[in-house]
Amino acid sequence: MRPRCSAAAAYAADRKKVLKELLRLKARREARLRRLLAQVSRDERQNEANAREGDTQLARLARTRHAMLSWRGRATVGDMGRRAREMQGVLRGVYALNEERCRLRQARALLEERRRALLQARVTLMKQQEKLTLVLTDDDYQN
């Protein structure tokens, strides 16, 4: 005659299976969070590279503007019109770069906020994993 499993033993086995499955799901979620954090890091590096490039262009335009404004001498009407159009182009470039810098600052703030949220979610997840592991090891010691 085969011994029957008691209801308590069946419950404990089922509970252990559920906890192991939860632990596996938490590990998958942690891997996904790590991938998302890596993507945020790549986006932050790209944002910083774009900001450095914009700063370089802005410095170049500032030098050009300074050279145009510090020019002394005589010029014909046509030459003055050409210089005015060049100055207008420089000022448009400065305006566009300042808008781009503002957009990059906003993107940086969003990335920092996203990083904080992902890190908080990862910490919470790791605490949950630790609790599940403790429950599983306690069950193993009790059985």
TrEMBL record:
Q: Could you identify this protein by its name?
A: Putative type III secretion system protein SsaO
Q: What does UniProt list as this organism's lineage? A: Bacteria, Pseudomonadati, Pseudomonadota, Gammaproteobacteria, Enterobacterales
- Out of the domains of life, which is the source? Bacteria
